[in-house]
Design a protein that fits this description.
The chain is about 40% helix and about 15% strand. The protein is built from 14 helices and 12 strands. The chain has helices at about 5-10, 15-20, 70-80, 100-105, 135-150, 170-180, 195-205, 220-225, 225-235, 270-290, 295-305, 320-325, 335-345, 355-360, and strands spanning about 30-35, 35-45, 45-50, 55, 85-90, 115-120, 125, 130, 155-160, 185-190, 210-215, 235-240. The chain has a 7-stranded parallel sheet with strand order 4-5-6-9-10-11-12, covered by helices on one side. A 3-stranded antiparallel sheet has the order 1-2-3. Strands 7-8 form a two-stranded antiparallel sheet. Strand 5 (about 85-90), helix 4 and strand 6 (about 115-120) form a beta-alpha-beta unit. The chain starts with a helix and ends in a 5-residue tail after the last helix. The chain binds NADP nicotinamide-adenine-dinucleotide phosphate (NAP). The site of NADP nicotinamide-adenine-dinucleotide phosphate has 28 residues, from helix 12. NADP nicotinamide-adenine-dinucleotide phosphate binds near residues 242 and 326.
Protein backbone atom coordinates (compact mmCIF):
# COMPACT_ATOMS: atom_id res chain seq x y z
CA UNK A 1 0.00 0.00 0.00
CA UNK A 2 1.66 3.20 -1.15
CA UNK A 3 -0.82 5.92 -0.98
CA UNK A 4 -3.08 5.15 1.85
CA UNK A 5 -2.04 8.11 3.97
CA UNK A 6 -3.17 10.68 1.48
CA UNK A 7 -5.68 8.49 -0.25
CA UNK A 8 -7.56 7.64 2.89
CA UNK A 9 -8.20 11.32 3.37
CA UNK A 10 -9.66 11.50 -0.11
CA UNK A 11 -12.00 8.62 0.56
CA UNK A 12 -13.18 10.32 3.69
CA UNK A 13 -13.84 13.62 1.99
CA UNK A 14 -12.55 15.35 -1.07
CA UNK A 15 -11.91 18.65 0.68
CA UNK A 16 -9.65 16.89 3.14
CA UNK A 17 -7.55 15.55 0.35
CA UNK A 18 -6.73 18.95 -0.94
CA UNK A 19 -5.37 19.95 2.41
CA UNK A 20 -3.55 16.66 2.81
CA UNK A 21 -2.07 16.38 -0.60
CA UNK A 22 -1.71 19.81 -2.08
CA UNK A 23 -0.75 22.53 0.37
CA UNK A 24 -1.76 25.92 -0.98
CA UNK A 25 0.46 27.21 -3.75
CA UNK A 26 1.54 23.81 -5.06
CA UNK A 27 -1.06 23.47 -7.78
CA UNK A 28 0.71 22.93 -11.08
CA UNK A 29 -0.38 24.71 -14.22
CA UNK A 30 -1.59 21.47 -15.80
CA UNK A 31 -4.07 20.99 -12.99
CA UNK A 32 -7.48 22.39 -12.40
CA UNK A 33 -8.44 24.20 -9.25
CA UNK A 34 -12.07 24.62 -8.39
CA UNK A 35 -13.87 24.48 -5.08
CA UNK A 36 -10.54 23.59 -3.52
CA UNK A 37 -10.11 20.40 -5.53
CA UNK A 38 -7.32 19.42 -7.86
CA UNK A 39 -7.45 16.97 -10.71
CA UNK A 40 -4.53 16.21 -12.95
CA UNK A 41 -5.04 17.18 -16.59
CA UNK A 42 -3.93 15.39 -19.74
CA UNK A 43 -3.94 16.22 -23.44
CA UNK A 44 -6.05 14.42 -26.00
CA UNK A 45 -4.34 15.57 -29.16
CA UNK A 46 -4.38 19.30 -28.46
CA UNK A 47 -7.40 19.13 -26.17
CA UNK A 48 -6.82 19.71 -22.45
CA UNK A 49 -9.08 17.66 -20.13
CA UNK A 50 -9.30 16.62 -16.50
CA UNK A 51 -8.02 13.06 -16.71
CA UNK A 52 -11.15 11.48 -15.25
CA UNK A 53 -14.28 12.36 -17.19
CA UNK A 54 -17.94 11.47 -16.79
CA UNK A 55 -19.94 9.20 -19.09
CA UNK A 56 -23.57 10.27 -19.14
CA UNK A 57 -25.03 7.39 -21.17
CA UNK A 58 -26.39 5.36 -18.26
CA UNK A 59 -28.39 8.34 -17.04
CA UNK A 60 -30.85 7.74 -19.85
CA UNK A 61 -29.80 4.71 -21.88
CA UNK A 62 -28.61 1.15 -21.67
CA UNK A 63 -28.63 0.55 -17.93
CA UNK A 64 -31.90 2.23 -17.13
CA UNK A 65 -33.98 -0.81 -16.31
CA UNK A 66 -34.49 0.28 -12.74
CA UNK A 67 -35.61 3.70 -13.83
CA UNK A 68 -33.95 7.01 -14.38
CA UNK A 69 -33.67 9.82 -11.91
CA UNK A 70 -32.92 12.97 -13.85
CA UNK A 71 -32.68 15.12 -10.73
CA UNK A 72 -29.96 12.90 -9.25
CA UNK A 73 -28.26 12.73 -12.65
CA UNK A 74 -28.10 16.53 -12.84
CA UNK A 75 -26.71 16.63 -9.29
CA UNK A 76 -24.11 14.05 -10.32
CA UNK A 77 -23.06 16.15 -13.32
CA UNK A 78 -22.76 19.26 -11.16
CA UNK A 79 -20.78 17.38 -8.52
CA UNK A 80 -18.44 16.10 -11.20
CA UNK A 81 -17.79 19.64 -12.40
CA UNK A 82 -17.19 20.78 -8.82
CA UNK A 83 -14.61 18.00 -8.44
CA UNK A 84 -12.62 19.08 -11.48
CA UNK A 85 -14.17 16.85 -14.16
CA UNK A 86 -14.18 18.67 -17.49
CA UNK A 87 -14.79 15.93 -20.09
CA UNK A 88 -18.46 14.94 -20.27
CA UNK A 89 -19.54 12.31 -22.76
CA UNK A 90 -22.85 11.74 -24.51
CA UNK A 91 -24.19 10.79 -27.98
CA UNK A 92 -27.28 11.54 -30.03
CA UNK A 93 -28.20 7.83 -29.99
CA UNK A 94 -28.38 7.77 -26.18
CA UNK A 95 -32.08 7.79 -25.56
CA UNK A 96 -32.10 8.59 -28.50
CA UNK A 97 -31.74 12.30 -27.90
CA UNK A 98 -32.86 12.40 -24.25
CA UNK A 99 -29.33 12.11 -22.86
CA UNK A 100 -28.20 15.18 -24.82
CA UNK A 101 -31.32 17.01 -23.64
CA UNK A 102 -30.50 16.11 -20.04
CA UNK A 103 -26.97 17.44 -20.44
CA UNK A 104 -28.33 20.60 -22.05
CA UNK A 105 -30.42 21.21 -18.93
CA UNK A 106 -27.60 20.29 -16.54
CA UNK A 107 -25.03 22.50 -18.24
CA UNK A 108 -27.21 25.59 -18.59
CA UNK A 109 -25.17 28.30 -16.93
CA UNK A 110 -22.24 25.94 -16.37
CA UNK A 111 -20.94 25.45 -19.91
CA UNK A 112 -17.62 27.28 -19.40
CA UNK A 113 -14.71 24.96 -18.75
CA UNK A 114 -16.65 21.87 -19.85
CA UNK A 115 -15.18 19.78 -22.64
CA UNK A 116 -18.46 18.61 -24.08
CA UNK A 117 -18.21 15.49 -26.21
CA UNK A 118 -20.98 13.94 -28.27
CA UNK A 119 -21.25 11.50 -31.17
CA UNK A 120 -23.03 11.16 -34.48
CA UNK A 121 -23.33 8.33 -36.96
CA UNK A 122 -25.74 5.85 -35.40
CA UNK A 123 -28.87 7.78 -36.34
CA UNK A 124 -29.65 8.08 -40.03
CA UNK A 125 -31.77 11.22 -40.24
CA UNK A 126 -32.77 10.86 -43.87
CA UNK A 127 -32.87 7.07 -43.75
CA UNK A 128 -33.83 4.50 -41.17
CA UNK A 129 -33.50 6.62 -38.01
CA UNK A 130 -31.87 5.44 -34.77
CA UNK A 131 -29.74 2.33 -35.05
CA UNK A 132 -28.87 2.87 -38.72
CA UNK A 133 -25.26 3.87 -39.36
CA UNK A 134 -24.86 6.98 -41.48
CA UNK A 135 -21.68 9.04 -41.55
CA UNK A 136 -22.43 10.77 -44.84
CA UNK A 137 -21.66 14.50 -44.92
CA UNK A 138 -25.36 15.33 -45.34
CA UNK A 139 -26.30 13.29 -42.29
CA UNK A 140 -23.52 14.88 -40.23
CA UNK A 141 -24.88 18.34 -41.09
CA UNK A 142 -28.32 17.39 -39.81
CA UNK A 143 -26.94 15.58 -36.78
CA UNK A 144 -24.74 18.43 -35.59
CA UNK A 145 -27.57 20.95 -35.67
CA UNK A 146 -29.76 18.63 -33.59
CA UNK A 147 -27.02 17.99 -31.05
CA UNK A 148 -26.19 21.68 -30.69
CA UNK A 149 -29.83 22.49 -30.07
CA UNK A 150 -30.39 19.72 -27.52
CA UNK A 151 -27.15 20.52 -25.72
CA UNK A 152 -28.06 24.21 -25.63
CA UNK A 153 -24.70 25.31 -26.97
CA UNK A 154 -23.16 26.85 -30.06
CA UNK A 155 -20.20 24.48 -30.18
CA UNK A 156 -19.28 20.88 -29.44
CA UNK A 157 -15.76 20.56 -28.03
CA UNK A 158 -15.16 16.99 -29.20
CA UNK A 159 -17.34 15.47 -31.93
CA UNK A 160 -16.91 11.74 -32.49
CA UNK A 161 -18.01 9.43 -35.24
CA UNK A 162 -19.73 6.76 -33.11
CA UNK A 163 -18.96 3.83 -35.40
CA UNK A 164 -17.11 3.65 -38.70
CA UNK A 165 -19.65 3.55 -41.54
CA UNK A 166 -18.65 0.90 -44.07
CA UNK A 167 -20.71 2.69 -46.74
CA UNK A 168 -18.93 6.04 -46.50
CA UNK A 169 -15.17 6.53 -47.02
CA UNK A 170 -13.69 7.95 -43.84
CA UNK A 171 -12.12 10.77 -45.89
CA UNK A 172 -15.61 12.06 -46.75
CA UNK A 173 -16.73 11.88 -43.15
CA UNK A 174 -13.66 13.67 -41.83
CA UNK A 175 -13.85 16.21 -44.65
CA UNK A 176 -17.33 17.16 -43.42
CA UNK A 177 -16.08 17.34 -39.83
CA UNK A 178 -13.18 19.58 -40.87
CA UNK A 179 -15.75 22.01 -42.32
CA UNK A 180 -17.56 22.07 -38.97
CA UNK A 181 -14.26 22.82 -37.23
CA UNK A 182 -13.61 25.67 -39.67
CA UNK A 183 -17.09 27.05 -38.93
CA UNK A 184 -16.48 26.92 -35.17
CA UNK A 185 -19.31 24.47 -34.51
CA UNK A 186 -16.87 21.75 -33.50
CA UNK A 187 -13.61 22.16 -31.60
CA UNK A 188 -11.92 18.80 -32.18
CA UNK A 189 -12.83 15.52 -33.81
CA UNK A 190 -12.76 11.93 -32.63
CA UNK A 191 -13.46 8.38 -33.70
CA UNK A 192 -14.91 5.48 -31.74
CA UNK A 193 -14.00 1.80 -32.12
CA UNK A 194 -12.04 2.59 -35.30
CA UNK A 195 -9.24 0.34 -36.52
CA UNK A 196 -5.65 1.36 -37.28
CA UNK A 197 -6.13 1.97 -41.01
CA UNK A 198 -9.21 4.10 -40.50
CA UNK A 199 -7.42 6.11 -37.82
CA UNK A 200 -4.47 6.79 -40.13
CA UNK A 201 -6.68 7.75 -43.08
CA UNK A 202 -8.82 10.03 -40.93
CA UNK A 203 -5.83 11.72 -39.32
CA UNK A 204 -4.34 12.42 -42.76
CA UNK A 205 -7.41 14.53 -43.62
CA UNK A 206 -7.71 16.40 -40.31
CA UNK A 207 -6.01 15.85 -36.94
CA UNK A 208 -7.94 13.41 -34.78
CA UNK A 209 -7.80 14.49 -31.12
CA UNK A 210 -9.09 11.30 -29.52
CA UNK A 211 -10.18 7.75 -30.17
CA UNK A 212 -12.82 6.44 -27.79
CA UNK A 213 -12.82 2.66 -27.53
CA UNK A 214 -13.73 0.10 -24.93
CA UNK A 215 -10.69 -0.40 -22.73
CA UNK A 216 -10.50 -1.69 -19.18
CA UNK A 217 -8.94 -4.41 -17.08
CA UNK A 218 -11.06 -7.04 -18.81
CA UNK A 219 -11.16 -5.53 -22.33
CA UNK A 220 -7.64 -4.98 -23.59
CA UNK A 221 -7.99 -5.68 -27.31
CA UNK A 222 -6.75 -2.25 -28.39
CA UNK A 223 -3.31 -2.67 -26.85
CA UNK A 224 -1.66 -4.56 -29.67
CA UNK A 225 -2.61 -2.68 -32.82
CA UNK A 226 -4.51 0.47 -31.95
CA UNK A 227 -2.71 2.01 -28.99
CA UNK A 228 0.66 2.08 -30.84
CA UNK A 229 -0.95 3.99 -33.72
CA UNK A 230 -2.50 6.50 -31.34
CA UNK A 231 0.88 7.06 -29.71
CA UNK A 232 2.63 7.40 -33.06
CA UNK A 233 0.14 10.01 -34.25
CA UNK A 234 -0.25 11.87 -30.95
CA UNK A 235 -3.93 10.98 -30.57
CA UNK A 236 -5.46 10.65 -27.10
CA UNK A 237 -7.31 7.59 -25.82
CA UNK A 238 -10.67 7.84 -24.10
CA UNK A 239 -11.43 4.42 -22.61
CA UNK A 240 -15.17 3.85 -22.50
CA UNK A 241 -16.83 1.42 -20.11
CA UNK A 242 -13.68 1.70 -17.93
CA UNK A 243 -15.44 -0.05 -15.06
CA UNK A 244 -16.42 -2.98 -17.26
CA UNK A 245 -20.00 -1.68 -17.33
CA UNK A 246 -20.06 -1.94 -13.56
CA UNK A 247 -18.66 -5.47 -13.30
CA UNK A 248 -15.14 -4.52 -12.21
CA UNK A 249 -16.49 -2.59 -9.23
CA UNK A 250 -17.47 -5.85 -7.55
CA UNK A 251 -21.03 -4.61 -7.14
CA UNK A 252 -22.38 -6.87 -9.89
CA UNK A 253 -22.52 -10.42 -8.54
CA UNK A 254 -25.51 -11.85 -10.35
CA UNK A 255 -27.17 -11.36 -13.70
CA UNK A 256 -30.44 -11.12 -11.84
CA UNK A 257 -29.35 -7.69 -10.62
CA UNK A 258 -30.10 -6.38 -14.12
CA UNK A 259 -33.62 -5.42 -15.11
CA UNK A 260 -35.12 -7.28 -18.06
CA UNK A 261 -34.31 -4.50 -20.53
CA UNK A 262 -30.80 -3.78 -19.25
CA UNK A 263 -28.36 -3.90 -22.19
CA UNK A 264 -25.98 -6.11 -20.24
CA UNK A 265 -28.42 -9.01 -20.52
CA UNK A 266 -27.53 -9.11 -24.24
CA UNK A 267 -23.80 -9.29 -23.56
CA UNK A 268 -22.14 -12.72 -23.78
CA UNK A 269 -19.70 -11.92 -20.99
CA UNK A 270 -22.56 -11.24 -18.61
CA UNK A 271 -24.21 -14.56 -19.50
CA UNK A 272 -24.23 -18.03 -17.99
CA UNK A 273 -20.86 -19.71 -17.57
CA UNK A 274 -18.98 -16.63 -18.77
CA UNK A 275 -20.49 -14.53 -16.02
CA UNK A 276 -19.51 -17.05 -13.37
CA UNK A 277 -15.94 -17.36 -14.69
CA UNK A 278 -15.56 -13.58 -14.87
CA UNK A 279 -16.37 -13.19 -11.19
CA UNK A 280 -12.79 -14.28 -10.47
CA UNK A 281 -11.58 -11.15 -12.27
CA UNK A 282 -13.77 -8.90 -10.15
CA UNK A 283 -12.56 -10.74 -7.04
CA UNK A 284 -8.90 -10.08 -7.88
CA UNK A 285 -9.61 -6.38 -8.51
CA UNK A 286 -11.28 -6.31 -5.11
CA UNK A 287 -8.25 -8.00 -3.52
CA UNK A 288 -5.90 -5.38 -5.00
CA UNK A 289 -8.30 -2.69 -3.82
CA UNK A 290 -8.10 -4.02 -0.26
CA UNK A 291 -4.31 -3.92 -0.52
CA UNK A 292 -4.42 -0.34 -1.81
CA UNK A 293 -6.98 0.82 0.76
CA UNK A 294 -9.20 1.89 -2.11
CA UNK A 295 -12.37 0.69 -3.78
CA UNK A 296 -12.40 -1.68 -6.76
CA UNK A 297 -13.78 1.06 -9.02
CA UNK A 298 -10.90 3.34 -8.03
CA UNK A 299 -8.36 0.60 -8.68
CA UNK A 300 -9.83 -0.11 -12.14
CA UNK A 301 -9.54 3.59 -12.98
CA UNK A 302 -6.07 4.03 -11.47
CA UNK A 303 -4.79 1.15 -13.62
CA UNK A 304 -6.08 2.92 -16.72
CA UNK A 305 -4.54 6.22 -15.65
CA UNK A 306 -1.22 4.45 -15.18
CA UNK A 307 -1.21 3.49 -18.86
CA UNK A 308 -0.13 6.97 -19.93
CA UNK A 309 -0.59 10.71 -19.90
CA UNK A 310 -2.72 10.51 -23.01
CA UNK A 311 -5.50 8.46 -21.40
CA UNK A 312 -8.74 9.93 -20.02
CA UNK A 313 -11.36 7.35 -18.95
CA UNK A 314 -15.01 8.33 -18.73
CA UNK A 315 -16.62 6.25 -15.97
CA UNK A 316 -20.39 6.32 -16.12
CA UNK A 317 -22.65 6.82 -13.16
CA UNK A 318 -25.87 8.60 -12.38
CA UNK A 319 -25.13 8.97 -8.66
CA UNK A 320 -23.38 11.74 -6.77
CA UNK A 321 -21.68 9.37 -4.32
CA UNK A 322 -20.14 7.34 -7.12
CA UNK A 323 -18.96 10.46 -8.93
CA UNK A 324 -17.10 11.32 -5.74
CA UNK A 325 -15.70 7.81 -5.45
CA UNK A 326 -14.62 7.59 -9.07
CA UNK A 327 -13.01 11.02 -9.34
CA UNK A 328 -11.04 10.29 -6.18
CA UNK A 329 -9.11 7.70 -8.22
CA UNK A 330 -7.09 10.65 -9.50
CA UNK A 331 -5.22 10.59 -6.19
CA UNK A 332 -4.53 6.85 -6.17
CA UNK A 333 -1.11 5.69 -7.33
CA UNK A 334 -0.83 1.92 -7.46
CA UNK A 335 2.43 0.18 -6.62
CA UNK A 336 4.36 -1.70 -9.29
CA UNK A 337 3.26 -4.93 -7.65
CA UNK A 338 -0.40 -3.91 -7.68
CA UNK A 339 -0.15 -2.85 -11.34
CA UNK A 340 1.48 -6.16 -12.22
CA UNK A 341 -1.25 -8.13 -10.50
CA UNK A 342 -3.89 -6.21 -12.41
CA UNK A 343 -2.09 -6.43 -15.76
CA UNK A 344 -1.79 -10.19 -15.29
CA UNK A 345 -5.56 -10.66 -15.10
CA UNK A 346 -6.95 -12.86 -17.85
CA UNK A 347 -9.19 -11.39 -20.55
CA UNK A 348 -12.88 -11.72 -19.88
CA UNK A 349 -14.65 -14.87 -20.93
CA UNK A 350 -17.03 -13.92 -23.71
CA UNK A 351 -17.22 -10.82 -25.92
CA UNK A 352 -18.86 -7.67 -24.64
CA UNK A 353 -21.14 -7.45 -27.64
CA UNK A 354 -23.57 -9.93 -29.11
CA UNK A 355 -22.76 -10.84 -32.70
CA UNK A 356 -25.04 -8.28 -34.31
CA UNK A 357 -23.51 -5.41 -32.31
CA UNK A 358 -20.00 -6.54 -33.28
CA UNK A 359 -20.56 -5.78 -36.99
CA UNK A 360 -19.36 -2.19 -36.79
CA UNK A 361 -16.43 -2.68 -34.43
CA UNK A 362 -13.09 -2.38 -36.25
CA UNK A 363 -10.81 -4.57 -34.16
N1 LIG B 1 -18.37 4.91 -27.83
C1 LIG B 1 -19.15 3.92 -27.46
O1 LIG B 1 -19.56 3.11 -28.28
C2 LIG B 1 -19.55 3.79 -26.02
C3 LIG B 1 -20.12 2.59 -25.55
C4 LIG B 1 -20.45 2.49 -24.19
C5 LIG B 1 -20.23 3.57 -23.35
N2 LIG B 1 -19.70 4.73 -23.85
C6 LIG B 1 -19.45 5.90 -22.97
O2 LIG B 1 -18.65 5.50 -21.87
C7 LIG B 1 -19.29 5.87 -20.65
C8 LIG B 1 -18.95 4.89 -19.54
O3 LIG B 1 -19.22 3.57 -19.94
P1 LIG B 1 -20.38 2.66 -19.30
O4 LIG B 1 -21.35 3.53 -18.61
O5 LIG B 1 -20.83 1.75 -20.38
O6 LIG B 1 -19.61 1.71 -18.29
P2 LIG B 1 -18.73 1.89 -16.97
O7 LIG B 1 -18.36 3.29 -16.79
O8 LIG B 1 -17.68 0.88 -17.09
O9 LIG B 1 -19.74 1.41 -15.84
C9 LIG B 1 -20.96 2.04 -15.60
C10 LIG B 1 -21.74 1.18 -14.62
O10 LIG B 1 -21.02 1.08 -13.41
C11 LIG B 1 -21.80 1.56 -12.32
N3 LIG B 1 -20.87 2.31 -11.46
C12 LIG B 1 -20.24 3.47 -11.73
N4 LIG B 1 -19.41 3.82 -10.73
C13 LIG B 1 -19.52 2.85 -9.79
C14 LIG B 1 -18.92 2.65 -8.54
N5 LIG B 1 -18.03 3.49 -8.05
N6 LIG B 1 -19.28 1.54 -7.83
C15 LIG B 1 -20.18 0.65 -8.32
N7 LIG B 1 -20.78 0.79 -9.53
C16 LIG B 1 -20.44 1.89 -10.25
C17 LIG B 1 -22.87 2.41 -12.94
O11 LIG B 1 -24.07 2.35 -12.19
P3 LIG B 1 -24.81 3.69 -11.62
O12 LIG B 1 -25.06 4.58 -12.78
O13 LIG B 1 -26.06 3.12 -11.05
O14 LIG B 1 -23.88 4.25 -10.62
C18 LIG B 1 -23.09 1.73 -14.29
O15 LIG B 1 -23.97 0.64 -14.16
C19 LIG B 1 -20.78 5.91 -21.02
O16 LIG B 1 -21.52 6.69 -20.11
C20 LIG B 1 -20.74 6.49 -22.41
O17 LIG B 1 -20.65 7.90 -22.34
C21 LIG B 1 -19.34 4.84 -25.15
Amino acid sequence: MTTSGTFHAYRAGVGLLTAARFPSGTVGEAQHWEWGVVMKHVKLGGLDVGRIGLGAMGMSHGYTGFGTDDAESVRAIHRALDLGVTLIDTAEIYGPYTNEELLGRALAGRRDGVVLATKFGLVSHAGGGPGHPDSSPANIRTAVEGSLKRLGTDHIDLYYQHRVDPQVPIEETVGALAELVAEGKVGAIGLSEAGPDTIRRAHAVHPVAAVQSEYSLWTRGIEEKILPVLRELGIGLVPFSPLGRGFLTGMVRSREQFAEDDWRRTSPRFSGENFDRNLAIADEVQAVAADADATAAQVALAWLLAQGDDVAPIPGTKRVARVEENTAADALTLTADQLDRLSALPSAAGDTHAENDRRLLER
